[in-house]
Write a structure and sequence with these properties.
By secondary structure, the protein is mainly α. It contains 6 helices and 2 strands. Helix content is 64%, strand content 6%. Helix 1 crosses helix 5 and helix 3 packs across helix 4. It is globular and about 55 Å long. The termini are far apart.
């Protein structure tokens, strides 16, 4: 867009982003199709959470995924059956199990990311360099806005303001 052109409205930008997300999903799936052991989108999300929060329990994973412990338990059963995660007794509670990606699971995610980046790189390389720079700038702004919105939503559900520290109640 030229400097004199009007900037798109939020609804126009949302439609454009939605369209791009659909195309990205196609590219993402191409990166996944190579693997001989298919992993569902839900299982993949669980693996990303486990990569980020090593050793969490089933309840915490279910919370992170917005699901129920019984559903997540079945999902973990399948991931364990294909050899991507391990369950181990918790050091802090005999009643809980800790969930971890194993080496095979980490390798799967590394290879998946590599294949996805290859697919993206081929598309991005076809763009003029000034448009690539604008893309990076726009994506960084989008990430910052999305992170702020997620922080606000998390604060709203926990009852506090983003970044706020709870103070003790004062008595008169």
């Amino acid at each position: 867009m030229s400097p004199s052109a009007p900037s798109p409205r939020a609804d126009e930008a949302a439609r454009a982003v939605g369209s791009v997300v659909e195309l990205l999903e196609v590219l993402w799936e191409r990166g996944r199709d190579v693997d001989s052991k298919p992993v569902s989108a839900s299982q993949l999300r669980a693996m990303f959470v486990l990569e980020d929060k090593e050793g969490i329990n089933l309840r915490a994973l279910a919370e992170a995924l917005g699901s129920t412990p019984p559903s997540v338990s079945r999902l973990c059963d399948r991931l364990q059956a294909v050899g991507y995660i391990e369950r181990a007794p918790s050091a802090s509670s005999r009643r809980e199990l800790e969930l971890r990606l194993n080496d095979r699971g980490r390798t799967f995610l590394r290879d998946l990311r590599r294949r996805r980046e290859t697919e993206l790189r081929s598309v991005i390389a076809a763009m003029p360099s000034n448009r690539r720079a604008a893309l990076v700038e726009g994506l960084e702004s989008f990430r910052a806005a999305a992170t702020a919105a997620a922080d606000e939503a998390a604060a709203a559900t926990s009852g506090g303001a983003p970044g706020a520290v709870d103070e003790p109640a004062r008595t008169a």
